[in-house]
From TrEMBL:
SUPFAM superfamilies listed in its UniProt record: NAD(P)-binding Rossmann-fold domains
Organism the protein comes from: Kribbella koreensis
Full protein name: NAD-dependent epimerase/dehydratase family protein
Domain of life: Bacteria
Record domain NAD-dependent epimerase/dehydratase: where: 7-226
């Protein structure tokens, strides 16, 4: 890259998007954030429903060298997921093709695109893609649009993030939901916690995005972003309760889609192979899960 990046971040008001913007600010990298909801300091733009001319104007005026799409629909019906994870991606790629064709496009994908794997194994970027629910299918469709653009000459990369944790975890995640109930009730009702997930801190994921955004030369089309270690969801929740110092009891229900507390498909095991991103960019996760959970509790929302 040029060393004088101008980065546009879509989904800047979200969990990961806000972490990316904070890191860009800390590193002194010029950036502009966009979010679906109103709120300073980010500009409002809805990729799924906004007028293409308005998006064209934004890209044409700012002339970004990097475009990061951290916007996504994680819940809702098939229509909502399709709009947020497929239509939005196509809108951004189309506008980039016409008004910022030299920019690097960084798409935040999801481990849900892979689906499950045999217990004890790691999924690399060549793993079979077999999502089992609408979220995974729509995220995969969005990634496929990006990869098609890449094959047609665009500088585009998909970062498939595994389960993101850390300070600011929203209530749509397992940890965010439990976090908001700890200390307010004696028991918390959850689904099955039998799933093994690869948890990676949001600050580490932001570092991976920045590494891709500033890397020189052509990159592989897909990178996994995870810790490389699967943890039983039950153990992770028990650790969060321990950190909180509360005596909250967890009551588990039956397994169902999203039972590990995220929009990921209901699969028994996921663990990332991150050797590719380590080889090309020198990135690896730095924040252990225990530290991530401690920081999550410390930064919890307070009344």
């Amino acid at each position: 890259m040029s060393g004088s990046e101008r980065v546009m971040v879509f989904g800047a008001g979200g969990f990961l998007g806000s972490a990316i913007c904070r890191l860009l600010a800390e590193r002194g990298i010029e950036h502009r954030g966009f979010t679906r909801s109103t709120g300073d300091p980010h500009r409002r733009f809805d990729l799924a429903s906004g007028h293409c001319y308005a998006l064209d104007t934004q890209l044409g005026a700012y002339k970004p060298t990097v475009i990061v799409n951290a916007a996504a629909a994680t819940h809702g019906d098939v229509l909502e997921l399709t709009r947020g994870n497929v239509v939005a991606v196509q809108s951004l790629l189309s506008s980039m093709n016409g008004h910022a064709s030299n920019a690097r496009f960084v798409q935040i994908g999801s481990a849900a695109e892979y689906g499950g794997a045999p217990r004890g194994t790691s999924q690399d970027e060549q793993a079979e893609l077999r999502p089992g629910a609408a979220y995974g299918f729509t995220k995969l469709a969005g990634s496929e649009l990006v990869l098609r653009a890449q094959r047609n000459g665009a500088d585009a990369v998909v970062l498939r993030s595994f389960n993101i944790t850390g300070p600011g975890s929203p209530p749509s995640t397992l940890f965010g939901r439990v976090l908001r109930q700890l200390g307010t009730t004696d028991t918390i009702q959850l689904g099955s916690l039998e799933a093994w997930r690869d948890y990676v801190d949001v600050r580490d994921v932001a570092e991976a995005v920045l590494a891709v955004a500033t890397a020189e030369g052509k990159l592989p089309p897909v990178f996994n972003v995870g810790s490389g270690k699967a943890t039983l969801a039950r153990d992770a929740i028990n650790k969060l309760i321990e950190v909180s110092g509360t005596r909250t009891k967890i009551v588990e229900g039956e397994a169902h889609a999203g039972h590990a507390g995220s929009p990921a498909d209901a699969v028994a095991w996921q663990q990332a192979d991150t050797s590719l991103i380590s080889k090309h960019l020198g990135w690896s996760s730095k924040i252990p899960l225990d530290q991530s959970l401690t920081d999550t509790w410390t930064a919890r929302p307070r009344e």
